[in-house]
Amino acid sequence: MHSSASNASLFVRFNSSHGFPVEVDANASIFQLKEAVAKRQGVPNDRLCVIFAGKELRNDLKLQNCGLIQQSTVHVVQYISQPTQRSAGDSSTGIPKRRNGSEVAILNQVDLSPSALPRHSADLRNEDQGHCSHFNTSGSRLYSSFYVYCKTMCKGVQPGKLRVRCSTCQQGTLTLTRDPSCWEDVLERNRMTGVCQTKDCDGTVAEFYFKCGKHPTSESDTSVILNLITPNRQNIPCITCTDTVQNPPHPTEYMIDPVLIFPCVDRHVICLDCFHLYCVTRLNDRQFIHDPELGYSLPCVAGCPDSLIKEVHHFRILGSNQYDRYQHYGTEEYVLQTGGVLCPRPGCGAGLLPDAGLRRIECLLQNGVGCGFVFCRECKEEYHEEECSSLHIKETAVNQQDYVINEQAAKQARWEEASRQAIKETTKPCPKCQVPVEKNGGCMHMKCPRTSCQFQWCWLCSKEWNRECMGDHWFE
Predict the structure, then answer these.
(1) Catalytic residue selected from 443, 448, 458, 469
(2) DSSP letter, residue 354
């Protein structure tokens, strides 16, 4: 189906069974989508529930503000009993609410980083601007929070989409009890719960997965999450080149350049160009580290302890040819670490696991691997009975060349420190209930996001909003 620029083509899965395309206006609401589905299926539209990415979508929301893009798959469930009457503008039903009454975030924009702002501050809606940081549903500031390795069409690092399904019936009809707040919520099994809306399914366990955000995907077309790569929202300089990408004031989904954050204590930041150079340099010098559990990996570029990258798919940034070398070297390192040897004949390099203490090694030709070369285990030359000549003993030590990192650059490239500073500068407690509140542009007129509070106050003087505040420093 071809759609014009003013139309949106969605794939609707009805009652978790058959699916069909639906074309609606790009500015259509969820209520209008329900009308289109109801007309096609011959059912009342007030008995339909639209579910996407773990949320039941509210009637008055626009499709484009819910993360629904061209050819997205959305689940529509028909209630058997008559639900409470809902109108096109009804804002009290639909999307699940947090305990403080605010709407849950769009799943694609949930911030899972350890340095994310406190949950209530991310929920804040500035009184005059009408939006809240990057958890915005107004459409003014949307960008990808996740990056994946697309192993099908793109074969590279791309912005990703977070999706959730019921672990019991494997359908995307599960509505989350709460939003995930950290990577453990998403990556660890049986950690998050919800309610499955599929008929005759009583599943309650959420199962998360990721998709490539650059092209339409089938339900089985999943991608590998690269959880160390994130948008550089705080403009932190790269630890090696010290450059900072100045992001536009109103970035769109693909306009913020991503960076990689090493899993060290300081969480040092490196741009992807420098990370690629770091990987290639270390690969050429065979200075990757073989870890029994993680495999062939690299630590923080600054040499920080306990900083090995756990998800080795991050090294896909090397490109297909270099990544093949990486896998080849990783296999060789495994052989060497387990007491094996590599055939020294040029063009062979087969991994061999001879008995300990055996000096005569034969590279047996088996299953198309091996060359038949017989060599000495100690000097790697053609096998000989006499002792190895000193001329034959090769120097195997690798000349370790440490990456030179400027101390000042390392201090400036710390994600955690920059996050703490950002929170300090943009977050204040509500004067009435003390919930952390984030200010993201706009005027000084603030409103507490908690439904039980809703206190209106001045950002500068932390007093209840009054005429003096309005006249003296509404905008500063």
Answers:
(1) 443
(2) P
CA distance 104 to 89: 18
Write out the E strands in 123-245: 147-150, 156-166, 174-176, 194-196, 206-212, 224-225, 229-231
Q: Per the confidence metrics, is the pTM higher than 0.85?
A: no
The sign of the CA dihedral 335, 340, 344, 346 is negative
Structure tokens, 60: 């008055």
**Contact assessment for residue 12 and residue 52, using Cβ atoms and an 8 Å cutoff:** no
Rounded distance between C-alpha atoms, residue 210 and residue 257, angstroms = 20
The rounded distance, in Å, linking the Cα atoms of 102 and 113 is: 21
Nearest C-alpha neighbor of 1 from the set 10, 42, 75: 10
Distance CA 52, CA 239 (A): 39
Q: How far apart are CA 111 and CA 145, in angstroms?
A: 6
Residue 153 DSSP one-character state: T
Spatial distance between the Cα atoms of 370 and 354, rounded to a whole number of angstroms: 14
Concerning whether 469 is annotated as a catalytic residue, the answer is no
Task: Give Rg (Cα) of the chain.
Answer: 28
Which amino acid belongs to residue 95?
I
CA torsion angle 318 324 329 331 (round to 10): 130
Rounded Cα gap, residues 21 and 12, in angstroms: 6
Element (H, E) at 284: helix 272-284
Q: What pLDDT score does 415 carry?
A: 66
Residue type, 430: C
Share of the chain above pLDDT 90, in %: 17
Asked whether 227 and 160 are in contact (CB, 8 A), the reply is no
To the nearest 10°, the Cα dihedral for 24, 26, 29, 31? 0
Distance separating alpha carbons of residues 201 and 191, to the nearest angstrom? 19
Distance CA 33, CA 30 (A): 5
* Number of neighbours of residue 250 by Cβ within 10 angstroms: 11
Q: Is 379 helix (H, G, I), strand (E, B) or coil?
A: coil
Distances (CA, A) of 210 to 142, 218, 220, 266: 18, 12, 10, 27
Per residue in 17-62, pLDDT (tens digit) is 778 888 888 788 889 899 999 888 888 888 898 988 888 888 888 8
Q: Six-digit token pair at 250?
A: 């109103």
